[in-house]
Amino acid sequence: MATPMPARPPFTPPSEAARRGLLHHGIAFLVVVALLGAFNLYIGKPYWVLWVLLGWGAGVALHAFLTLRR
Known about the structure:
Blueprint: H1 16-43, H2 49-68
C-alpha cells in the first residue's frame, strides 16, 4: 500500500513536479477530448462527448485547484 502524501503547508508554492503533472493532465485532456469530439461529430447525434468533457473536465479542474491553491 502506498504511503499517503503529507499535506502541503499553506502559502507554499507547488512543486515543479506537481505543476508538470497538471500540465500533462491538461494536455492529455485536450488531445483526447478533441479526438473524441471529432469522432463524435463524424458519427453524428447523440453528442455523448459532452459527458466526457464535463466528467473529465471536473477532474482536471479539481487537479488544478489542489495543485495551485494557496
